[in-house]
Specification:
The chain is mainly β and 90 residues long. It contains no helices and seven strands.
């Protein structure tokens, strides 16, 4: 059975402001480096960021933090040796 990344990724849209944000939560007892790729399929535009998530911490990124997220974007988080996780912005 493959290892499972101990980081949860959720994507939310604020219907009032139409802002989109993603929240990562480190569920482990160690700091985890997470690389994020955001792909806009219609333009093939890719944005990348990296975070060092402390143990049991959360990190938020999105429209309000200067990271544009659009409907249809694919958000992928990676942290070797774990398999990547991808979520679709709706």
């Amino acid at each position: 059975m493959p290892l499972r990344m101990p980081v949860a990724l959720q994507i939310y849209r604020n219907n009032a402001s139409n802002a989109v944000r993603a929240v990562m939560e480190n569920m482990s007892d160690v700091t985890i480096r997470v690389d994020i790729s955001i792909l806009t399929p219609s333009t093939q535009d890719t944005r990348q960021r990296s975070y060092a998530l402390p143990p049991r911490a959360t990190e938020m990124f999105g429209t309000d933090q200067g990271v544009a997220l659009y409907a249809g974007d694919q958000v992928t988080i990676e942290s070797p040796p774990y398999p990547p996780q991808t979520k679709l912005v709706r």
